[in-house]
Specification:
single chain; alpha+beta; Metallo-beta-lactamase, Chain A; five-stranded mixed β-sheet; 4 helices; 15% strand; elongated; WH-like_DNA-bd_sf
């Protein structure tokens, strides 16, 4: 029997689907309501769009994306020590620690480059993107703009931006 009813969830609930137990995990960052699922039997983590098969995830600034929360969620996933990561795009990853640490390293590198270009005189979002994403196909720069804005917010929260910064975002 299928139910079309709505059941609100907050994370940390267990659900049973066809005899398979899944733990719901609140995973904000990419969006403010992002969730992941941990399969109990295989200890595989379905990460949704938090990780993707190739490249890096785009956080959605219009749907509550938050870089600080993204970092926290990535660390939470590391603490779970899953045996595999299952992204919504790309292949299953059987080296989850390597993938998650790679995501953290990439985000830290992007933030270091953002600070560098701002200290070098960048005055606009485009200036930052052109420098930080110079090695990336320009067709993804629009999507990258969301990540850059969220990185700048994250750096501001940590008081890591130049004091006289008057950048136009």
């Amino acid at each position: 029997v299928w139910s079309l009813g709505y059941t609100p969830v907050t994370g940390d609930e267990d659900i049973d689907i066809g005899g398979q137990r899944l733990r719901l995990i609140f995973a904000p960052g990419r969006t403010d309501g992002h969730m992941a699922l941990l399969h109990a039997n295989t200890h595989s983590l379905i990460v949704g769009d938090h990780c993707v098969g190739q490249g890096s995830a785009t956080l959605d600034i219009r749907s509550g994306g938050n870089m600080s929360e993204y970092f926290k969620t990535t660390y939470k996933f590391l603490e779970l020590s899953p045996h595999a990561l299952i992204p919504m795009h790309g292949r299953v990853n059987v080296w989850p620690k390597q993938m998650l640490c790679g995501y953290l390293k990439n985000r830290r590198s992007r933030e270091a480059n953002i600070v560098k270009v701002i200290e070098g005189g960048a005055k606009s979002l485009f200036d930052i993107i052109a420098y930080v994403y110079s090695d990336v196909d320009r067709r993804v720069w629009i999507a990258a703009s969301s990540n850059v804005r969220l990185h700048v917010d994250h750096l501001a929260q940590q008081h890591k931006l130049p004091k006289a910064m008057t950048i136009l975002l």
